């Protein structure tokens, strides 16, 4: 089977090519799947897409008209896919249901410590041979309270690191994780968690119920000197409300690896053209904010697992099998 892979990163391409060699034909594109690029898939029964692909109704209909029957997304999240339309069109949709939770959890802590200890500001200064400490005062994590919104596999890995720091652990989730309980985590309501936490980290999926989980009211409930980290999905945070809070001088630091309007921006070089997203541009002017481009998952181990799972998804489809990765089975 020939597979057309959209949004393939430079580091990812050789991993995909080695994995698919001898199994399926593979053609990699560095462009993302959008309404404009969807016609490129004509004649390909299977496409593989990245997390920022547009798989709304119009794109899916274009793919189906061109003969595509399988969408194999190289991510766990699938909020970008109109599953109802895929089902209507009789398309199979599969995702990667699991990859290294440590990749995201460790990166979330990287963001937390970077904004806490003003690492980016310090690095910029020392490159200019400015070795002053003014404005670089951070805080010990030991003894402080961390609030973990979402305690699944990634949230648990994040919690284990927090436990190693010697922090007080608060959690919020629909279902409690016994492993987090064993570490000493106390499960509380969202409002109590936000009000008590020195560090808040998001590890929940993006659904209709979690969209803007941290809205203006939720942000107002947080401590003025709290640190906020989001390495899950951008839509969990109301960015306009966050900018307003930052303009009011709130929060010791904010680390964001995701942004609610990141599609078409993240994983693309805009250094020459700039961006026309005023909210993102304003957000990045704050000295206590660190924005990275949805790279928390991007480790050798995690990408290797994603590639292997994508190959299995394509092979399962070709051989008529169905796994736990299938979101919409063949019609």
TrEMBL record:
GO molecular function, a single term: NAD binding
Keywords: NAD, Oxidoreductase
EC nos: 1.1.1.28
Enzyme class of the recorded protein, top EC level: oxidoreductase
Keyword Oxidoreductase in annotation: yes
Pfam family, one: 2-Hacid_dh
Ranges where the D-isomer specific 2-hydroxyacid dehydrogenase NAD-binding domain occurs: 110-296
Origin: domain of life: Bacteria
SUPFAM superfamilies (UniProt xref): Formate/glycerate dehydrogenase catalytic domain-like (SSF52283), NAD(P)-binding Rossmann-fold domains (SSF51735)
Signal peptide (UniProt feature, chain positions): none
Domain D-isomer specific 2-hydroxyacid dehydrogenase catalytic: 8-327
PROSITE patterns xref list: D_2_HYDROXYACID_DH_1 (PS00065), D_2_HYDROXYACID_DH_3 (PS00671)
Family designation: Belongs to the D-isomer specific 2-hydroxyacid dehydrogenase family.
Name this protein carries in UniProt: D-lactate dehydrogenase
Organism: Streptomyces rubrolavendulae
